Amino acid sequence: MGTVAKSSITLVSISDAYSLSLTPNSCVIKADFDGSNPKLEHAYTIISAYCGDEKPPIEIDSSTIIKSNDNIECQLIKVDSYRYRLSIISLPVDILQGYIEIPVLSGVSAGLTGRFTFSIVRESTMLDWIQDWENNKTTIGSSYVITPKIFVGKKIIGSHDSLEDVPGLTGVYIGPSENNGAGIYGYKDNKEIFHIDQTGGKIGGWDITSGGIQCEDGTLSIKSEGTISAQSEGIIHWSLNKDGSASFANGNVTMDVEGNASFKGTIETSGGSIAGWIIGADSIYNGTIGINSLKKFIAIANVASVQDIGNQLDWVKEYGGVAMYCISNTNYGLIGYKNNEKVFSAGSDNFIAGWNFNEKAIFSGIQTNSGFTTKSGDITISSNGIRGFKWRLEKDGSGALAGDNITWDKDGNMNFKGKIDASQIISGKIDTSLINTDAILSNGDAWALLKDGSGYLASKNLTWDEFGNINVLASLSLPYKEFYINTDSTPTPMDLSQGRYFIARYGNIYGDQIIELPTPIKEYNGSEIRIYSGFMTTRASRSDFDIIIKGNGIFFYPGYIPVLGSPIQISKVRVSNKEIILRCISLGDFVFWYIQNFCDFTNDDFNPQ
Q1: Displacement of CA 279 from its chain's centroid (Å)
Q2: For labelling, which of 293, 345, 381, 582 has a CA lying 20 to 30 Å from the CA of 511?
Q3: Does 445 score more than 80 pLDDT?
Q4: Are 212 and 222 a contacting pair, CB within 8 Å?
């Protein structure tokens, strides 16, 4: 006699992703025929909780345990912070089954309860009415019948030496068998269809032995020690082992007791998750990392969590990250973004750190494979050479600077379209005496190009420092250029990149003549502008000539202070038949146009109506 424990686990699902585990969740207890002497050695369960794959600590109060019968005695022992052992230590003799409910009071979630069930099987070998039976006799009592043999089935007429000789025998025989045994045998048309005896049994194509149950050909077996397997010709096709390990597909899929699985073949699925990775019909992703076979990309996006709209490739372009994609044979590549700005790409569009590249060249701006680039700032590096705006270095060693004004061939022969002024050029070469440790080129006090970038010309009457500041000791003259005003009487913007000294010419003698100066900026600091209008006021002219500043700017003059209460602000100046001299002045972040010849104007010339 003993206790049979079922190797199973009850998981009770609760909110917050917690569950309660009882291992086992039930047991079978053997006792004597009258219910006494129950075998309780294995009548126990281990209680624990799970939150996902983690075991949280739990607390159980023994006073809260509920029993199906008050006479059931049990014992609760705390194994550690995560497990309790509940054991049945005594049972009343008048029950055949019952349960014990175990509430978990704290540590996981209120209201979580597990139930441990049991049943009692009473042994018949100890029945007193069997012990008093006289062997080989049929005894009939008030509540029992004892007989050495019994057959239930069809009535067969005739005399036969044994049951096997009876033709067409159909029925069930209970009684002695060979080797001093006994059993139950079932026949149909004289063919045994099942039996149970001291050697085991057979029923429905299954053979039963003390070692387990197996089908007739042995291909499927359930062993009493806890293993279930299918095999043929010495090959185990699959097995579930008693220690929890398993194997399938002729050993190509295995799982150990820790839950680690190994697959030698392929895995196909239309959905699910593995270790935090979500598997879909066309994609696999884990948060901001995604692989999509339908949209053809692999992407890692720089976002903290999954976004509501779009996919990982969209998030890379909006928030930053790296992606590899192939949407079509004209739209593919490897891209990197910082925030929503592209840092690099390689594929159908090649770009890195502001540079584009392809199979022929690396370039910034517009690719140019010969001559000069067409735009300032553009550079192309190719197998033909390196070139920029007005300069080039060809692959054969030749090149040009200053827009072809300085050129040289592959043999080093140079051509200067401008002038080289020096007092010591010997045999067509620059004498080494003109080069010293402080200068790249020099001719004493006449001129020099110093290695720090500074230099001087015209016997030091024109000098500049390494920062580009120029000092002119002699006079500096600039030519006047004609500036024509719009014929539709609208303000005409003045382009200072075309010069600094202008002679204004009218466009419409009957309309307003207005020149619009550009807004003063730091790049104009120190620049002088002269505008002469002597040819504007002729006998044919019917209008005056005014100057304004773009953006409703104001002119500054001696004594003007741009604060509350300062003199009137000048936003327009009339310069009919005069010359106005303006200079741009920058003070910190403050930049303005200053009227140098303020005294040449009257009050009527300022803000004229």
Answers
A1: 15
A2: 582
A3: yes
A4: yes
Quote the Cα angle for 147-153-154, to 5°.
130
What phi and psi values does residue 350 have, to the nearest 5 degrees? -110, 125
Question: At 510, is the pLDDT very low, low, confident or very high (cuts 50, 70, 90)?
Answer: low
Specify whether the CB–CB gap between 183 and 192 falls below 8 A.
no
Distance CA 83, CA 323 (A): 47
User: DSSP class of residue 443?
Assistant: B
Q: Quick count: other Cβ atoms within 10 Å of Cβ 360?
A: 12
The answer to whether 370 touches 378, Cβ cutoff 8 Å, is no
Q: In what order do the strands lie in the sheet with 555-556?
A: 481-484, 501-505, 528-532, 579-587, 590-595, 555-556
How high is the pLDDT of residue 1?
39
Token look-up 């129950």 returns: 38
End-to-end CA separation in angstroms for the chain: 124
pLDDT in tens, 322-357: 888 888 888 888 888 888 888 778 777 777 767 777
Contact 595, 581 (CB under 8 A): yes
Helix (H, G, I), strand (E, B) or coil at 598: helix
Q: What is the pLDDT of residues 549-558, one digit of tens each?
A: 888 888 888 7
Compute the distance between CA of residue 287 and CA of residue 277 in angstroms, rounded to an integer.
8
**Parallel/antiparallel/unpaired status of strands 399-401 and 139-140:** unpaired
Question: Is there a contact between 570 and 555 (Cβ–Cβ < 8 Å)?
Answer: yes
For 64-204, strand residue ranges (E) read 66-67, 73-78, 83-90, 97-104, 112-122, 139-140, 145-146, 150-153, 171-177, 181-188, 191-197, 200-203
Q: What is the pLDDT of residues 359-413, one digit of tens each?
A: 677 887 888 888 888 888 888 888 888 888 888 888 888 888 888 888 888 888 8
In terms of phi and psi (left: phi > 0; alpha: psi -120 to 50; beta: otherwise), the region of 52 is left
Q: Which two tokens stand for residue 137?
A: 């006799």
Tens digit of each residue's pLDDT (9 = 90 or more) over 564-583: 555 678 889 998 888 999 99
**pLDDT, tens only, 316-330:** 888 888 888 888 888
- Please give the Cα distance from 35 to 1 (Å, whole number): 12
Token readout for 227 is: 């293993």
User: How is residue 524 written in tokens?
Assistant: 């104009």
Which of 41, 47, 2, 39 has its CA nearest to residue 20?
47
Among candidates 581, 577, 586, which has minimal Cα distance to 599? Answer: 581
